[in-house]
Design a protein that fits this description.
It is built from eight helices and two strands; from the N terminus they run H-H-H-H-H-E-E-H-H-H. The chain has 191 residues and is mostly helical. The protein has one domain. Strands 1-2 form a two-stranded antiparallel ribbon. Strand 1 and strand 2 form a beta hairpin. Helix 2 packs antiparallel against helix 4 and helix 4 runs antiparallel to helix 5. GO terms for molecular function: nucleotidyltransferase activity. This is Phosphatidate cytidylyltransferase. Keywords: Membrane, Nucleotidyltransferase, Transferase, Transmembrane, Transmembrane helix.
Amino acid sequence: MNELFRQTIHLLMGVVGAAIVATVQPRTAFIFFGFVLFAAFLILDIMTRGYDLPILESLVDEAERTGRVPIKGGIAFTIGALLSYAVFGPLLAAAGIVTLGVLDSVATVAGTRIGSRRVYRKKSLEGTVAGIAAAIVALCIYIPFLTGIAVSPALALLAAAAAGLVEMFSPVDDNLLIPPAVCSVLFLAGW
């Protein structure tokens, strides 16, 4: 497993996923989510039944952590994004999706490279702070670029901090919970 490759995919899923949900028609977005879930379950089913998919298996081996269910993180990512889109709409969902992609990937890379203060399980304070900082930048720059609607730095800090806490302490896959958490904070703040 190559953690940098894995986190690059995570980051791209967040950036591209946010762009898709913010710019396409709702029916197209739901078709996109449905196709991603269908493809992920299909690949998971094929792999767990023992069929050989040489090229795909090589990619999964590079992107998946050892001992984990193949593609589970991508499925959780898509379900969290889909739930956020269905409940909060495209603008808030885009903010939640890009926050997930940016925060989680930056926190993991920074935590493994410079993290020395472990807070919970293998999560480091340095990784979490780096992820929150990157998410603030994404919310203040990328979301207005996509949507034309500004996010204040204070609101970006609040949403990113909520995502950072979920990323650090979630007892379940944080890919499920970060987008709805960010959407909830932004919604309750009136964005």
